[in-house]
Amino acid sequence: MRSFLSDTLMRPLRSRPYHVAAALLFVVVAAVYYLPYLHALPTGIHTWAQSDRLSLALNFYDYGLPFLTPRTSSLVSIGGVTGVEFPIQAYLAALGGVVFGRNSIVPLFRLLDVAMTVTGFFYLFRLVFERTNHFVAGLVPGAFLLASPFYAFYAGSFLPDPFSLSLSFIGYYYWFRFFENRQFPDLRLALLVLTLAGLVKTTTALHLGAVVGITLLWAFLEPALLLPRHRRHFLLWAGVGFGAIVAFFLHNQYLNNTYRSWQFLSSINPILDPETQHDIVQSVRTNWLAEYATTTQYRTLAVCGGLLLVFLRPNLRRYLPLTLLLLASVVIAYLFVQLMGSSLGVHDYYLICSFIPPAVLLLVLALLNVGKYTGPVRYATSVGLAALVLFLGATGYKRLNRRMSDDYPPFSQYYTHLWMRGGAEQLQRAGVPQTATILVINEAVNTGQVYFDRRGVAWQPGEMGEITAEECLNRMAADSLDYLVMPPAVYAQLAPQHAAFAAGFEQVGREPGVVLRRRDRRRPW
């Protein structure tokens, strides 16, 4: 470890213009990628999961910003209150809504996520550039992530996973810088940022544990790493971080039990039998491998894996903390599969905080070694990496536009939200009060409520064509709901029962959804 410290090539920040150029470049690229979709409601793959998160922000705003009692627009729990991982994004978007108006919550939410994504790219740039002085090499990690179809898509959405991942990149930067310059504030900042990342997404708490474990092991083998008082402070800050994560988890369990909520998964979901494992592996191979990364990215990672072996001795000498963190992140990815494997056949975004960290660390280590060369080799790497950056950026942009469109087979055939567009405006034109509650014929817990901008319940009957007016009235009476909303195609299937529906409901809208007002609000359940 002493050889690592003696051989570390310190790169003072002599080239601030390059930092500014990189930051501006990331901002411009992000604007090109995401500005066209800044005002869009949740759409595309996993619209339901995005709607759940956006619903938190809307209800923070509507209910006076009660951070410790978050709620969604779904009344499946008592009052819509639910336990959820640290909802800082939704809360900040709601705060922005207080300043700029409720209609600004959607663009502010997306803008916040994009801003954090850009910040994560910038710190990956600093991690590489400040040790190699290779500008193009510093751009590669950001371009690599933008080329990932699922990462680029969710980075501009409402999910917490890319937000947490970007925070972890910031934490990695300050943690590694601590090993270089032995300044304890860097380590403290790394712990604070990684704690926040772990609060936002519990998976990232495992990476906080890896950072703490590696630092403790290093300090045990080399006591000079931390002064006695710094060792105490380190243990204190680590304890505070883990304590905060555990306390918030227990608070969420309390909310879920008290308000009978199940909206956000808060338990492990391992693979329990060979049949399930086979189905999940088939789903990943068929549906998700091409969404996680492109062929170019898989080949790039394979090359980086080879370079890891070629530069193994330099990595152990100069970049030992990052090498150990890479090893730990691989173990974390394996543990994640063991704990949450049954969810991987459906939830592609679960891999963002579990599998992207080892991929990025592998890429960063390769760039740190390749970027150290000078002369003709440096020129060749500059040209080659520049071509890679441009190709990855162009590929990512095209793929993002495809994935944001309504025609993205095979996934788009399962989209159930397209008919809802314009739903809020329809209810406003029909004079439906903002406080009215709705029963939406849809399986997604919060999507219909978000699109029609009303609280209520989503309901998915077994056979659409066999829904009766009596069933709908009973279901609405159970939660004192005011309006029934369904796709026009479903209502058309119920033609034989239109007379019965007319007796129990008054139709107030036809497009984009058929909206029926319950006539007798006194009907008992």
UniProtKB/TrEMBL annotation:
Q: One Pfam family, please name it.
A: PMT_2
Which keywords has UniProt assigned to this entry?
Answer: Membrane, Transmembrane, Transmembrane helix
Stretches assigned to the Glycosyltransferase RgtA/B/C/D-like domain: 87-219
Give the transmembrane ranges.
20-38, 108-129, 135-155, 191-221, 233-251, 319-337, 349-371, 377-397
Q: Where is the signal peptide?
A: none
Top-level taxon of the source organism: Bacteria
Can you name this protein? Answer: Glycosyltransferase family 39 protein
Organism annotation: Hymenobacter jeongseonensis
